[in-house]
Amino acid sequence: MPKAVVIDDKKEARELLLAYLVKEQFEVLCAETAAQGIALVSTHKPDVVVLNMRLPDCTGIEVLTQIKEIHQEAKVVMLSGLLDDEMTSQCLGRGAACVFSKTMGLDKIVKEIVSFA
Question: Alpha carbon of 59 to those of 39, 55, 56, 92, 116: distances in Å?
């Protein structure tokens, strides 16, 4: 069973992603903060990390860098409500597998996540 860690400070976003990924047969762990998410990644070594760009305790780009240092094989999917070309370029340059706007449909995002498992 593939494993995913969802890191998002918005409870609704975590719960939606959890529900969608469980339907796709993922074991899903959720974190509300960067610190919690990094701890989960370090302990559980997930196949996929779904990471919100803005967290209360750290930026998504900083978290992405830390995740890649502790678990380079993880496919990191970045999500942002406000996405621009520079942000996308920074994320991809630091090892993100892909970057999506949160306005994109969850079906498409989950389909991409499933392809990494």
Answer: 16, 6, 8, 15, 23
User: What is the enclosing helix (H) or strand (E) of 29?
Assistant: strand 27-31
> What tokens appear for 65 in the block?
């860098």
Q: What is the pTM of this model?
A: 0.94
Burial 71-89 (b: 16+ CB within 10 A, else e): beebbbbbbbeebeeebbe
The pLDDT > 90 percentage for the chain reads: 81
If pLDDT is split at 50, 70 and 90, which confidence band does 55 have? very high
**Tokens describing residue 18:** 């959890």
Whether 19 shows a pLDDT value over 80: the answer reads yes
| Domains, the chain, ordered by start | 3-108 (3.40.50.2300)
Six token digits for residue 89: 């370029």
- The amino acid present at 78, given as its one-letter code, is M
